[in-house]
Specification:
Elements lengths: L7 H14 L7 H5 L5 H12 L10 H13 L6 H6 L6 H40 L12 E8 L5 E8 L6 E6 L2 H13 L4
Antiparallel strand pairs: 1-2, 2-3
The protein binds a DNA duplex (21 and 21 nucleotides) through helix 3 and helix 6.
Length: 195
Amino acid sequence: MGRVAWTEEEDDLLKRRIEQYGEGKWHRVPLLAGLNRCRKSCRLRWLNYLRPNIRRGTFTIEEVDLIIKPHKLVVKCFRWSLIAGRLPGRTANDVKNFWNCSLSKKLNAEEKFEETKKDMMVQNAFEIDDFSTSSSIGPSRGPIYSTLLSPLPGGSSLILNRVQDHRAGTMLGHMPMDFHTMKWTMEMATGSGMI
DNA sequence: AAGCCAGCCAACCGCCGTTAA
DNA sequence: CTTAACGGCGGTTGGCTGGCT
């Protein structure tokens, strides 16, 4: 099954046809424009590429926010057309591609990071109990998290979260952090000015 | 320099709701 | 009421490109 890219000539024919007759009646478009394309291809090409005022290029922070917010408010909110309607010049297909290629991976990594953090808190609570049986675990005894690289044979490194007791500085354990979570965390920190 | 791989974008597919005959 | 055609949408995938080995 081959996908045939639109040529400039085809784009020109489609544009001229729509300028002449307006949008709609897509079933007649291929015939009127003299195109060997189906109605759906013509409509998609117009809506996603040829239409005036289409914005291309990277999404701004404000646009990303407008995409993520509805998704967080409503679980599995994938109404791309509604989201695109709030982003002037962006098409539903653009938003969908941006989500599928970039945002979903980043947000998954973020969720993973939060889960890892929770796991560490639970694990740490048990270890602190072993360390000091007489004291209860309160906010003032929170663990210290830090990140380090542990060299591996062959020149690569394992990224670890080091967990220490805040008072005694006693090492409580290490937890490996997966690469994507680490990368995402670094990007977030860099973007927010923390680094 | 060549091959491999991952990311991205554009195009296509299948389904669903609406409308008109 | 039924049914075929249409418009529209989300999901999927082919192919290009750039980075890496």
